[in-house]
Amino acid sequence: MKVAGGEDEDSLPIRSPHSSRLGVTAGTQSRSPQKYRARRGTANYTCPFCAKLFLDKSKWSRHMYAHTGEKPFMCSACARRFSRKDNLQTHMKDKHRIFKVKF
Q1: For residues 1 and 9, is the Cβ–Cβ distance under 8 A?
Q2: Residues of the chain with pLDDT > 70: what percent?
Q3: In CATH, what class is 30-70?
Q4: Between the CA of residue 27 and those of 36, 43, 59, 78, what are the distances in Å?
Q5: What are the residue boundaries of the structural domains of the chain, listed by start?
Q6: In the chain, what is the straight-line distance between the N-terminal and C-terminal CA atoms, in Å?
Q7: Dihedral through CA 23, CA 25, CA 28, CA 30, nearest 10?
Q8: For residue 23, what pLDDT is reported?
Q9: Which residues, at least 6 apart from 22, have a Cβ–Cβ distance to it below 8 Å?
Q10: Mean per-residue pLDDT, 72-87
Q11: DSSP string covering the chain
């Protein structure tokens, strides 16, 4: 369907809810390191895959699981694996009704 300006409606960029304020179109952001600049302090940890910066080593380590696919936390009841401890705890509570998990 044509809209004002002669463009097809399907070819228009999708805008985020904050796009008018920020001047950003959803899906077209660059992956530059400046985008991921730490808010406070100095970022000492950088992801070698996507150049995202982290202040804390623990948050950097957790982020790295997304790229490596590593899932070090395993459910003792069904052997399902998780990349994050909190996701395992939620699984144990919801699926197996086990509320206290010892690690």
Answers
A1: yes
A2: 57
A3: alpha beta
A4: 16, 26, 25, 38
A5: 30-70, 71-103
A6: 58
A7: 30
A8: 47
A9: 16
A10: 94
A11: -B-TTS-BGGGSPPB-TTHHHHT-BTT-----GGGG--SSS---EE-TTT--EES-HHHHHHHHHHHH----EE-TTT--EESSHHHHHHHHHHHH-------
